[in-house]
Amino acid sequence: MAYCDRCDRWFNSEYAYNAHRRDSSSHYMCWKCDKDFQTSTRLDQHLRQSSRHNYCTYCDEDFEDQDDLNEHYEDCHEFCHSCNMHRNSSIHRPRNITCPGNGRNAQFVNKSALLLHFEGGSCKSGLTRQKLNRLIAERDSSNFITNPNRLLTGSTETWATQKAWNGHAYECYFCHKEFRSLAQLNQHLASPVHEQPLYHCPKLGHGCRAQFKTASGLCQHIEDGSCGVARFKAIQDSMEILVRGVRRIAF
């Protein structure tokens, strides 16, 4: 006899008990480690983090050993083991994404780098992080990647004055971090460091729902493929539409 604590059921044999754990929607088993998880998210977390597993987050597939996983990465995901980087990195990819505001004077290897350029406020178009957030919020009417509650209030621009001087440095009112100059303090305040996350990873498949303060941070997370959502065509199409839409509206 075998007993399932979670389901409060008895089984006539270990075989029947294991069949129940394999087939029941209340159990998410890792048979290699003989661990039983209550949700698929926790099982995925275990597969990614455990040293006993050689798990591909792109395909949700566990391999027998590291050599098999490496071979899979090279064959299916263009991973370069000589430099320990994905071929989507700046080492392996050309800078073929051009900023429509700066022309060929500003070229980038991926969409997240272009968005980071916009957020930095150095683009000739005058596009800033705050303007970019508003543009994306207007286009993301279904809140596929944005948090509507946090976008209602918008971004508040905070600037420090000479009153921030505490006797030996310029001090941030929010975190009490100190800076040598007023310009450095205002650069700190202009960053998203004290803002609430505006973006989230789309919940498709095994999407992790991680949250981000910037569009470039979300885009980089998707491009890295760390949670596997990048393989969905809907995600790829959405990111392409996002960047295309920003180009069309801002320029």
Automatic annotation (TrEMBL):
UniProt keyword list: Metal-binding, Repeat, Zinc, Zinc-finger
Domain called C2H2-type: residue spans: 28-53, 170-197
Protein known as: Zinc-finger double-stranded RNA-binding domain-containing protein
Pfam families tied to this protein: zf-met
Lineage of source species: Eukaryota, Fungi, Dikarya, Basidiomycota, Agaricomycotina
An MF annotation (GO) of this entry: zinc ion binding
SUPFAM superfamilies: beta-beta-alpha zinc fingers
UniProt source species: Thanatephorus cucumeris (strain AG1-IA)
